[in-house]
Fold:
Amino acid sequence: MQWDEQLATGVTKIDEQHKDLFKRMDKIAEACKNGAAKDELMSTLMYLRKYVDSHFSDEEELQDKSEYPKREGHKKQHKFFMEKVDSLFHECEEEGATLTTILKTNTTINDLLVNHINNHDKEFAKYFRTK
Ligand SMILES: [Fe+2]
Ligand SMILES: [Fe+2]
Structure:
């Protein structure tokens, strides 16, 4: 999956973090192509978990500071993703890198990266730029 300028929010800090997430996504895809060793998938998920956690905190901090009116709903989405990544992590721990866990990981990250960034983060960025 490629970063696309369409996904830019215009807030440099957020955009840089999003680009990093995309790079990670590529690594997961690569690991899956090469027969997805469980260890590799797990370490990527672990990284993702930490990364997403700090990225979400940064984003939420900006939203709180700028008193973004939709911040509660946005936070809920972040929480949902965190829980998803957590449950994926446990699933992979138990089942290993099976076709199902790999597909689920890909779907979750696609949703997180493309849909969330493209809709919700962009909407926030639009608001933030007017502040
Ligand atoms: Fe984001
Ligand atoms: Fe977000």
User: Anything to note?
Assistant: The pocket of fe (ii) ion (ligand 2) is lined by residues 59, 74, 78, 116, 120-121 (CB under 6 Å).
